Description:
Elements: H1 2-22, E1 23-24, H2 39-72, H3 88-117, E2 125-132, E3 135-140, E4 147-151, H4 159-162, E5 180-183, E6 188-194, E7 199-203, E8 208-212, E9 218-222, E10 228-234, E11 246-252, H5 254-264, H6 268-292
Parallel strand pairs: 1-10, 2-6, 5-11
Antiparallel strand pairs: 2-3, 3-4, 6-9, 7-8, 7-10, 10-11
Amino acid sequence: MKNKAYAVLAALACLLFASSAFADKPVEWQTSFQTAATGIMEEITWFEHYTLWFIIPITLFVLLLLIIVVIKFRESANPVPSKTSHNTAIEVVWTVGPVVILLFLAIPSFQLLTAQLTPPANPDLTLKATGNQWYWSYEYEVGESPLTFDSIMMKEEDRATLGKEDKKEYPRLLAVDNEVVVPVGKTVRVLVTAADVIHAFAMPAFGVKIDAVPGRLNETWFKAEREGLYYGQCSELCGKDHAYMPIAIRVVSQEKYDTWLAAAATNVGDANKALMASIDSAKTVDVAANAAQ
């Protein structure tokens, strides 16, 4: 009986863990970045922590100076104010100090920017994302006939039809009807443009954010290191429905990607449903195996 109880608890724990790992999205009261899914995002997270070692001491130091000034140089304690207008030592310190601090910030900053803006020479997949008012269109540069489809924010009444009734995995205002599907561990080049006004393609877990400008083709890239469903949004004010054009990218194994790509050439909706079914089946098998152990 105890073994059965432990098995049930283990299965529940696995389900909870699987659902939390399955989708990277904003969470309530979030104060930090989403979990990094790419090497670039890991570097961004490291750089943010690195800068805090400068920001926090400087902030506390300035606060301390303000407190000292308020207490020591208040009118009652200092009725005759000093008329000092020049101090060479202080001027040297407040000039050299910020320069040194900026150097410590600039060097890793430039290295990170270089890594972000220098895509690998031979990407495994090229994807074109076009921002529209107010949805995204995608084009896969594969084979002689590219795969194209639109990705529109899912309406609540369409959850059952699309098989996306789990609001944890498919949250309101972030879930879409057709996700972008890419293979894990592969370099994906993304060409970004817009059909009407300026949009912005942003995926927090990937460390990707780039403007989509009409008449211009911008380029970015990512290499997702773990499978899952990741959410982003247009991050440029583009009109009245700016808040309703989310981005959803599903990262799967190469085998699942190849199967999806072959099916999507005929019908993207059916290919997505088949992919979701295979993922749900794999998750069920993993949970059952963990519970049995």
